[in-house]
Amino acid sequence: MKKKLNVENMSRKDFFKLPVRAHFSSDEGLFSAIVLLPTLRKHDSGYRSLDFVGCRGSEPICRLSGCSDVLNLEGIGGFGFKWIEKYGKCPNTIPVSGWAIDCLFKSGLFRIWPNKKIKVGAALSTFEIFSVE
After folding, report:
1. Cα–Cα distance list, 2 to 5, 20, 29, 66 (Å)
2. What residues does 62 pair with on adjacent strands?
3. pLDDT in tens, 32-53
4. φ, ψ at 11 (rounded to 5°)
5. Any idea where the domains of the chain sit in the sequence?
6. Short-list 23, 6, 105, 121, CA closest to 64
7. pTM of the model
8. How many CB atoms lie within 10 A of CB 84?
9. pLDDT-based confidence at residue 125 (cuts at 50, 70, 90)
């Protein structure tokens, strides 16, 4: 029986050895976590391309993208999963609180921002950030 991988014991190279899902597929099921994996490729935008590893518990399942330059939390605009089916268009009565993450090409560091301003919490073991008007 093959031993399960554990993200806590994996190197960056190990993550890149994981299988890649089929392009435009969204049939992998549900994940409990996503590992952000900056690539060394430059996206057309000038930022690094990002890949994302879907995990179930601590087990990595597959790489999910490799061609994106931004990660939008709660989808583009922050309207949630299948928003077009729910609303039919961009809703104008729901306050938008979308978040995005990209990767600076030179440093490989992540940048995160909301479509509003950021308010930060106290420096504790869990650091909180909030989008505010």
Report:
1. 9, 19, 22, 26
2. 54
3. 888 999 999 999 999 999 999 9
4. -90, 170
5. 1-68, 74-133
6. 23
7. 0.75
8. 10
9. low
